[in-house]
Write a structure and sequence with these properties.
The protein is built from no helices and two strands. By secondary structure, the protein is mostly beta strands.
Length: about 50
């Protein structure tokens, strides 16, 4: 997690609020997604690029 940056804002902080795409392993802060997510969803999650 220490080297994972949010694909939207580029920050590496807030790993407790970051989700990883199950396809490409890119990281995203929940608040950087549009629409924002309130919590990390259960199961498989795929970003809009995949």
């Amino acid at each position: 997690w220490d080297d994972v940056a949010c694909n939207v804002c580029g920050r590496q902080d807030g790993e407790e609020r970051m989700i990883l795409c199950d396809e490409c392993d890119c990281g995203f802060h929940l608040e950087c997604l549009r629409p924002k997510l309130a919590e990390i969803p259960r199961g498989r999650w795929v970003c809009w690029g995949c």
